[in-house]
Amino acid sequence: MNLLITFLGLVLMYQPAFLPKSYRLSKYSAEINTRIGQKASSDTFFVINESEEVLRVKGASAKCGCVSTEYEKRDLNKGDSAMVVVHYSPQFTGSFGENVYIKTNGEPKKYWFYIYGETEAENKE
């Protein structure tokens, strides 16, 4: 599992170089370590408009119910950025990795980044 997570992380690091784009992300993966019984752990990404056109983040989601997102709903002019917050609520112990999708009116329309980490057992102090 760790090898798969490492491979997917490397793929994501090089993904931006191959795509025509009107925006970029502040980062393309994030490590989120957590513990069962703990409230959701979070990380923040930024979508940065690099085009002359107005950009709008239309959505952010993941296929796993363990991931929820929040994102800014506003128009972005060139150089502006919008915050996307990813929350991970652990449901099992061990390694995890999830794709998170961002939808925009720019190019590419749908783009994904990756969260990964380790979930430990509940602390029984």
Please describe the structure with a list of short key phrases separated by commas or semicolons.
49% strand; mainly beta; 125 residues; six-stranded mixed sheet
Describe this structure in words.
With 125 residues, this protein is mainly β. Helix content is 14%, strand content 49%. It has 1 helix and 10 strands. It has one helix spanning 2-18, and strands spanning 23-25, 29-31, 34-35, 41-49, 55-61, 67-71, 75-76, 81-88, 94-104, 110-120. The longest helix is centred in the first third of the chain and has 17 residues, at 2-18.
Brief rundown of the structure:
The protein is 14% helix and 49% strand.
Secondary-structure map:
Blueprint lengths: L1 H17 L4 E3 L3 E3 L2 E2 L5 E9 L5 E7 L5 E5 L3 E2 L4 E8 L5 E11 L5 E11 L5
Parallel strand pairs: 2-10, 3-10
Antiparallel strand pairs: 1-4, 4-8, 5-7, 5-9, 6-8, 9-10
Percent strand: over 45%
Structural class: mainly beta
Low-pLDDT regions: none
Mean pLDDT: 85
Shape: elongated
Give the distance, in angstroms, between the N- and C-terminal Cα atoms: 29 Å
Total helical elements: 1
Q: Helical percent range?
A: 10-25%
Whole-angstrom Rg: 15 Å
Number of strands: 10
Report on the biggest sheet: 6 strands, mixed
- How do the SSEs run, as a string of H and E? HEEEEEEEEEE
